[in-house]
TrEMBL record:
Belongs to the binding-protein-dependent transport system permease family. This is Carbohydrate ABC transporter permease. InterPro entries: MetI-like, MetI-like_sf. It is found in: Cell membrane. The chain crosses the membrane at residues 40-64, 71-92, 104-121, 159-179, 204-225. It holds the Pfam family BPD_transp_1. SUPFAM superfamilies: MetI-like. CDD domains: TM_PBP2 (cd06261). Residues 36-225 form the ABC transmembrane type-1 domain. It comes from Blautia acetigignens.
Amino acid sequence: MTNSSADITMGKLTFGNKLAENVTNAFNYSNLWRAFGNSLLLAVIVTGIGLLICSIAGYAFVVFPSRGKEILFLALIASMMVPFAAKIIPMFRMFSKMGLLNNYLAIILPAIGSPFLIFFFKQNAYSFPKDTLEAARMDGLNEYQIFFKIFMPMMKSTYAAAGIFMFMASWNNYMWPLIALQSDTKFTLPLVVANLASGFTPDYGMTMVGIVLSTLPTIIVFFTLQKSFVEGMTGSVK
């Protein structure tokens, strides 16, 4: 990032004096700030809505009795084995018929129902004490109140761990936005950084500026929630 493109190509490993030039060129050549804002907006929306949906689904699998829930859960797990490449064409046709191509809803809707995170919340919901659940019902709380006032606060470490997974997945999402988004003004940061590295004579100095910018939010989120992440992976009920 501090060297010229030629120096980077030659494998120079020492610091250079091209940092200001590379940063200026990167922001002048492409709208990195707009792309950064687009990625941040999508990541926050997907993480917020996704955590709510996945946690409700995982909670329901454990708390509410149903004869068909095990079959449904097996189907959910089986969906994790389907490679994304096999889903691209059906997803493209579906969102095309819905008129949602080049719309952020085409990015948000497939991401908010993660089978992995539903499984993650389901496994952690087993540690939720059943005595607390019964006591809350005896005190007159309905299921919505139990979930939002008791389950969510007690499982905050699980939410932190799942939030890191979902934020990083949304932030680093490249293939589907590349297909679904067609307007430069709606491009996310991975798409813009990939464009910096494309062409016959890519400028690696500018590319590294974009890579550093795209890496910083995930580092900040991880280290901010690191303690809660470890607690959420090892058991989170307080």
